[in-house]
């Protein structure tokens, strides 16, 4: 049966309409994985000698054990944002003579073979080998390594439990942040010293291998909870079917001020507010807005001037990036309708542009308190915001004309908790790094003011030539009209 | 009103549609019948410029559809549920279409009010999004949306499928009235021979992408079509 499932997935991957595009991304992700593997490998090999050198008096193993808590916490947060439970379209399987438990077991077991679980091994195993080479008792080291591997799996399943609970909420990433932040805070202020508890636990396992039963029991419990949660969701009227909510219509008459793009603007606002997937882009805005705090409270970053631009572009452009990169795929489920209606493509795109430009403006204004960290920060943010409006909005709309992947707004695939993965962040590279590079070069050649001015000028040029650029972009969209309609008509 | 010349569509060398000439005059109610894969939806998609013809072209009111967009103001269609915007309520959807077609809210309200019977109280004022309606009710909303803004050409793909019998009968009345009283050209495709013969003045049978019959509807048409499709036709 597992063989059947695997062959189904093989086919869905190779026969998908967006196969070519996904392949390109897969190759990129492949390189990224190789890089990460190399980093972890070096860490695994180098950790023991490095710790020995830095702290000659203490046992490297004990130091590592005392830091395991932070690893668990960090891993959990990273996984929440990047790892998804492997999705399988289970609807057609439900009425076939396959036991529900079999489907659930398959999905769960498949998740074990995730890259996120393999990666730590590249650090854990070399470190374990070094320990043995250094003369630590073999059986005890093996027990310790095994315990770590079990912890990796616990994190794996714990993450899915957290995701399944947060999927129901609107602020989907709030629980994980509260949980991780809470645990970290409790530990940081020494209310409950988790890193000591976990460190002692691992010391105990190292000293007495029998204690390994504890993590095994936890792992087992996590698996069972996951199994129950998923099995519940396998009925048509629970997980697979979206709940019908009563409509709360809001008055959007103010959009009339925008003239002929008003109907599209209204449509876009409803699109964002009424679909789970788009709504999460709105909540990301909060995250983006506060992102600067991570940087600026650290004096080391505050002295690195080019990072102001990074934060500026990111915090004022987070909606632009998250929303803009899926234009026109947001409208993919009714693209045929739009194409037969009496509408001007330019108006349609202009509405998206207006929305993004407005968001940049609002986010910049909300970000003004950053002036606390100095006038330079605010000035750099202003330059970044103008650059975002003048350049990045156009870049991202242009990028959209290459969009060939349908977004199913009425997502019903079971187990699909987030709808976003690592891929979503790729678009950020040109959008974020280019202005930063321009700024850094000019900054080191001349000075801060000129560098900001260059970005502002670039932005203003973009705004001045807005109509010309939009004509060009519109032409790109009309040229690929048939390809888009065709691609959007296919279900992956 | 609609002229088709030398039209053909190929996918990877497979010919799925080939129509040398087809003229549909203004105000005609036109029915397209054929088995699965006969090319009905392909023809409608070409008519709406959703796919590109391999050869030839279609003109609506002398506007070539794949060259200019000027046919859009007077043409409306409902092909399938991809023509619906799932996260709008039916009312919002009607207003949105209305705005694109230059109708204000009052115009749309007046038009939609005529279809109270047709909706059977299941569409308006339900406080539900279109995606949460049943397939049949979605279809009703889509069909009515295609009537907004006084279009001169209305294209409906399989409008009778998924509808309950009462609604089917009401829909037939609506289509007949459109063609007879208002001079609207209505194009309908269907698998249901009885419905098309009831509604359409002219019926074209497609087979493997080609026109095999072009009939003026009369008392004998249904029999003839049934004979054709059951394969017992005397040649």
Automatic annotation (TrEMBL), chain A:
It comes from the Bacteria. The keyword Protein biosynthesis does not apply. This is ABC-2 type transport system permease protein. Pfam families: DUF5687. Keywords: Membrane, Transmembrane, Transmembrane helix. The chain crosses the membrane at residues 27-50, 62-82, 103-129, 141-161, 173-192, 204-225, 280-297, 309-332, 353-372, 378-402, 423-442, 448-466. The lineage of its organism: Bacteria, Pseudomonadati, Bacteroidota, Flavobacteriia, Flavobacteriales. The keyword Transmembrane helix applies.
TrEMBL record, chain B:
Keywords: ATP-binding, Nucleotide-binding, Transport. PROSITE patterns: ABC_TRANSPORTER_1, ABC_TRANSPORTER_2. GO terms for molecular function: ATP binding; ATP hydrolysis activity. This is ABC-2 type transport system ATP-binding protein. The keyword Plastid does not apply. Residues 2-233 form the ABC transporter domain. It holds the Pfam family ABC_tran. It comes from the Bacteria. InterPro entries: AAA+_ATPase, ABC_transporter-like_ATP-bd, ABC_transporter-like_CS, ABC_Transporter_VariousFunc, P-loop_NTPase. The keyword Nucleotide-binding applies.
